């Protein structure tokens, strides 16, 4: 205590406790990279105060706007799996690696973009170029609309996933038709979650193995 000149364990009984000043909270790297015309919204609050976030447009974003590259750690397995986000892999030096984002300081804002569940809600397409993954808008995005993404046709084959196609405008070249065969979902034996491809199931099961 600087007032009575004594070295004490705990509070000074004569002058009381110190006034504690807290550091200002600094946003994570991922949140700091968010473009000024996009915003994050909390869509759901789960157990343990876990926030489910979505990325929304604050102004009109034109078709063919490119975002990226996606920032993540190259890894042979995922340390963090979220069923609402795309699993992303890239080809580097002849090897296939996951773009892993175990926390918000290991990625950029693109890690918050949720996957599109159908053709109507998809606004972005993910694809690989020169060993990096980019997202590009496939139609104009209106303000207050959530950005949602799915694989491009070639990237879907690389990821062993089904392709979701956006309806092309009349002045655009139509995408080639893709033959689709009905497939049974892959089911996780540990938690009974279902996945469209074996690759997604395998990535998910890595999480169970790590927890064990």
TrEMBL record:
Span of domain SET: 38-152
C2H2-type domain location: 186-212
Cross-referenced SUPFAM superfamilies: SET domain (SSF82199)
InterPro entries: SET_dom (IPR001214), SET_dom_sf (IPR046341), Zinc_finger (IPR050331), Znf_C2H2_type (IPR013087)
Name listed for the protein in its UniProt record: PRD15 protein
A GO-annotated cellular component: nucleus
Keyword Calcium: no
Lineage of the organism: Eukaryota, Metazoa, Chordata, Craniata, Vertebrata
Coiled-coil residue windows: none
GO biological process terms on file: regulation of gene expression
Keyword Transcription regulation belongs to the record: yes
Keywords: Metal-binding, Transcription, Transcription regulation, Zinc, Zinc-finger
Molecular-function annotations in GO: zinc ion binding
Any Pfam family the entry gives: PRDM2_PR
TM segment ranges: none
Encoding gene per record: Prdm15_1
């Amino acid at each position: 205590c600087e007032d009575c000149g004594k070295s004490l364990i705990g509070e000074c009984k004569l002058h009381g406790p110190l006034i504690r000043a807290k550091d200002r909270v600094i946003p994570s790297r991922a949140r700091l990279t968010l473009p000024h015309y996009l915003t994050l919204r909390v869509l759901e609050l789960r157990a343990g105060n876990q926030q489910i976030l979505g990325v929304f447009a604050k102004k009109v974003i034109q078709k063919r706007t490119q975002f990226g590259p996606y920032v993540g750690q190259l890894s042979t397995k995922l340390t963090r799996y979220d069923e609402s986000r795309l699993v992303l892999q890239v080809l580097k030096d002849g090897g296939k690696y996951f773009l892993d984002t175990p926390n918000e300081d290991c990625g950029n804002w693109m890690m918050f973009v949720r996957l599109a569940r159908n053709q109507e809600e998809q606004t972005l397409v993910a694809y690989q170029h020169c060993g990096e993954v980019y997202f590009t808008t496939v139609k104009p995005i209106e303000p207050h609309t959530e950005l949602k993404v799915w694989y491009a046709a070639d990237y879907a084959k690389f990821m062993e996933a089904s392709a979701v196609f956006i309806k092309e405008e009349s002045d655009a070249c139509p995408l080639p038709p893709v033959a689709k065969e009905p497939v049974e979902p892959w089911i996780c034996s540990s938690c009974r979650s279902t996945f469209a491809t074996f690759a997604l199931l395998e990535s998910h099961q890595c999480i169970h193995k790590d927890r064990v």
